[in-house]
Amino acid sequence: MATETTERRGYFTGWTLKKEGIIAPDERLPWGQTIFVGLQHVLAMFGATVLAPIIMGFNPNTAIFFSGIGTLIFFLVVGGRIPSYLGSSFSFIAVVLVAEGVTHNIPVALGGIITAGVVYAIIGIIVMFVGYQWIEYLMPPVVTGVVVAVIGLNLAPVAIGEANHSQFDTWMALATILAVAVVAVYLPGPLRRLPILLGGIIGYLLDLLFANGLGYGTPVNFTALGNAAWLGAPAFTTPTFQISAMTLIAPVAIILVAENLGHVKAVGAITGRNLDKYLGRAFLGDGLATIVSASGGGTGVTTYAENIGVMAVTRIYSSLIFIFAAAVAILLGFSPKFGALIATIPIGVLGGLAIVLFGLIAATGGRIWVQNRVDFSKSRNLITAAVALTMGAGNFTLNIGNFTMSGIGTATFSAIILYQLLREREPKPEEMASADSAVGLSPTEPQASADSAVELNHPTEPQAGAGK
Predict the structure, then answer these.
(1) Partner of 96 for a Cys bridge, out of 109, 355, 443, 468, CB 3.0 to 4.6 A?
(2) 301-303/398-400 β-pairing
(3) Would residue 289 count as lying in a domain?
(4) Is residue 380 part of a domain?
């Protein structure tokens, strides 16, 4: 059954009460059910939204708070027409760690994230006026796939470093990886959508058992948790601006464009609605949310594939549920006790979660190639991917005066430039494929129904965000 309905006119959509069946973006469940589904979305985004700031050295409480604020900003900009939750973006991790340096200069990194948000917002305004086809021309499936894969490969050393912090942490990382895998494959229906959260909890409990209980590793210290207040304002940080950090982090905006384009296409596919006309507003909303988040000490944000997966499984696409999810995230941000609890997560457990998440991001790049039938017997595709993958995985860094571009940036621009230089005058079919095909749609076919449009609704395959 398709979810296609006539959209309401005007800037904001309204919500018609509907008690059963498929719930469209402009429909809603009774309030009790709406709140419950909103809590499901909080759980779905929680693991990744907390893990990213921890890796970057940011305050996870602040990141959770601004993920809620960012989701509300996105909702306002798109008029509630694209149901999405915005969480911490993994695309920023590598360049932020470089910008912070050994002194962990977070204010400098925040200035760079704001710059990326400004660039992203400007791209959104351009798309609002001229359309998004130029983005698809610059970033066909072979390029998009390699950019997504590079994010995961470039971050791999970070994950391995945490997992190998000590011999005990290595075993805890392996146990956490196994726990995530078991949750993702063997747990009943809805629980499979929470592999990072539940796998992390299992890893945490195992660490407590073997470290605090049996004395095999460094015990978890709960002193700060006991001293933390239950209620208090988030720990805000004021950004500072340095040209080197700004030029290093700004190119991440290009990655976010490709990521958000795919996510909006996916939402359009599962809801049975063509959301292309809102792409510019989606880019603008995400860019503004990133600017606001970094202005107060939060991470860069992006739309989350985990929440798209929850919608595909539940068939509840009401954009209203994300207002409640955002409200819960904001409330959690006002609990220092909650932030102190997150800070107790053992480094081995974090390493195991990071290995899974970064690996899923890299594998998603390959999934894009497979879905779009990218032909690697063609030298232009093979060379484009080969050069970019090596640059990204090896963190090839380009320095020109005060300008620095690290592995993800050099890989992204090398893929875009190489492909355009090698592009044939008469494109073959896979080169003309649009982002529609990345979510299972033929470029010549209309939007499919929620039953068959995308593989996101396959209940046995939890999805990871492409380059969070």
Answers:
(1) 109
(2) unpaired
(3) yes
(4) no
